[in-house]
Prior knowledge:
By secondary structure, this protein is of the alpha/beta class. The protein has helices spanning 34-44, 60-64, 115-124, 167-170; strands at residues 28-31, 48-54, 72-79, 87-93, 107-111, 133-137, 141-149, 155-163. It has a four-stranded mixed sheet, covered by helices on one side. The N and C termini lie far apart (48 Å).
Amino acid sequence: MTIDPPLNHAPASTPPARKPGLHLKRPCLVVADLQRSFKLYQDILGFKLDYVSAASETSYLYTVFKIPKHGKLTFATLSTEHELRALALTEVKEVKMPRPQPPYAIGLVIQVAELATTMLAIEALGLEIMLPSSFTAPPNLVFTEQGFLDFDGHLIILYEVKVSRDEQAER
Length: 171
């Protein structure tokens, strides 16, 4: 596995531009092994590594995730071509993290270009996958979605959108 060099979006001294209104930023998944997670999130799903950093002993991550202080944390952010630092992964070492159990309280939803190809690569990793589901939306869109559990048991739902080429759409 190769890790792309971190993206250089702006100098560290440049504050990010403020976006007006409500803005959802960076879900953060707790993982046991960053390198293993990069195989999924970078190599298969296409996220680009922005940066990796060891968390300080006073990191807010310990507080909000209720991680015991003896845990060793490493924080990584990943970007897409559309969103800077769209996803965070926090590796926890020396603390066994519980695996999420069904019913799942949250799922991360990600659009991909080719769902079937992506799911074949995910299946090759030995991850648990769920059956796909498709539905249509006016005027002629076909949505297909399929869930799986990542290496740490997080529910991930991938979807693709295609334009239907049926007879009704051509009229």
